[in-house]
Amino acid sequence: MTTMPEGVPHRLYGRRRGHPLRPRQERLLAETLPRLRFDPALRPLPAPLWLEVGFGGGEHALEQHAAHPDVTYIAAEVFENGLCSLLSRLVPEGGEADAPLPPRLHLWPHDARELLAALPDASLDRLFLMFPDPWPKSRHAKRRFVHPAMLPVLARVLRPGAEWRIASDDPTYQGWVEEVMGAQDLFARVSRAEARPAGWPATRYEAKALREGRTPFYWVFRRR
Predict the structure, then answer these.
(1) Residues 220/191, Cβ–Cβ less than 8 Å
(2) Residues labelled as active-site residues
(3) What is the pTM of this model?
(4) What is the CA angle 25-50-117, rounded to 5?
């Protein structure tokens, strides 16, 4: 397993649980989640392989998986309520332990950085970072997923030509992405849009941003 470089946090910040879980949610975590958990030791890894970091409520992950059934999709999220939101859409009440599951959809309920450290070189074909926590205070900048210290980690696991999509509605994070990505040569900027491009499923975070008058930015970067 590759270790994280200097400057990358070695602990996870943020909540793992919000409101108390209901019995149905507890069953989903205990019975359904283990059936979908991705094993980074699996070899050979399936291809093509896409990863979404911090899938929130799961809308984007599920729509991408449905639109690309030939892709193995790993959706990473530590927030238990978000995990339950996605899992509840996959299995009916009472089917937590045995209802059929999508064969190429996997979950990673831990820090995505741990998964990235475990993956072999050039194993990912696409990476998604949709409306991440902006950590707006400057003293918390090291907690942002887009960070100079993280770029070599991502460059290692993304194959040459692989696509990295980022979306954010936070002005501080938008400026940060421009600053960090403008000062590196591992990824080429393909585009930046202020309207959601085709092929980018909507999320609840985007809808909230638009309701509150914020303009999301949508970037595409390509691994050189």
Answers:
(1) yes
(2) 133
(3) 0.92
(4) 85
Three-state SS letters, the chain: CCCCCCCCCCCCCCCCCCCCCCHHHHHHHHHHHHHHECCCCCCCCCCCEEEEECCCCCHHHHHHHHHCCCCEEEEECCCHHHHHHHHHHHCCCCCCCCCCCCCCEEEECCCHHHHHHHCCCCCEEEEEEECCCCCCCHHHHHHCCCCCCCHHHHHHHEEEEEEEEEEECCHHHHHHHHHHHHCCCCEEEEEEECCCCCCCCCCHHHHHHHHCCCCCEEEEEEEC
Burial 113-122 (b: 16+ CB within 10 A, else e): bebbbbbeee
- For residues 57 and 86, the answer to whether their CB atoms sit within 8 Å is yes
Q: Which domains does the chain have, with CATH numbers?
A: 23-223 (3.40.50.150)
Tokens of 105: 């959809």
**Amino acid letter, 64:** Q
How would you write the pLDDT of the chain (224 residues) with one tens digit per residue? 556 556 665 555 555 666 789 999 999 999 999 999 999 999 999 999 999 999 999 999 999 999 999 999 999 999 999 999 999 999 999 999 999 999 999 999 999 999 999 999 999 999 999 999 998 888 989 999 999 999 999 999 999 999 999 999 999 999 999 999 999 999 999 999 999 999 999 999 999 999 999 999 999 999 99
- Beta bridge mates, 130: 167
